[in-house]
Design goal:
This protein has 104 residues and is mainly beta. The protein is built from no helices and seven strands. The protein has one domain (3-103). Strands 3-4-6-7-1-2-5 form a seven-stranded mixed beta sheet, with no helix packed on it.
């Protein structure tokens, strides 16, 4: 069984580096070596939620690999309108909600 943890989402609001690039990071615990994981835009749903970004965790299993539990870092970033306040990540564990922080 696989799991995810350590999700974090933020805008860089440091002086001189203010931008609207949203960054999301986390860890996928793969059941073996050779797995890859990436985040891609998902579907918010029938009723739009202002300030919500939906992402899907896409997992690719290897054709061969070890059976040792492997931590796979996951990272996503993209330019937004700067108004995203929550990220919903669809993972094998179910949806995970992450509040977006502003790093000063």
């Amino acid at each position: 069984m696989s799991s995810t943890h350590g999700w974090y989402a933020w805008y860089n609001r440091m002086p001189g580096a203010v931008d609207n690039v949203l960054r999301v990071t986390g860890v996928f615990e793969a059941p073996g070596g050779g797995y890859t994981a990436e985040l891609e835009p998902g579907n918010v749903g029938i009723v739009p939620e202002p300030g919500l970004l939906a992402l899907n965790l896409k997992i690719t299993a290897p054709t061969a690999g070890t059976t040792a539990l492997t931590s796979v870092p996951v990272y996503w970033q993209d330019e937004t309108d700067g108004r995203i306040r929550n990220v919903r990540i669809h993972t094998p564990d179910g949806p995970t909600y992450v509040a977006v922080e502003e790093v000063h």
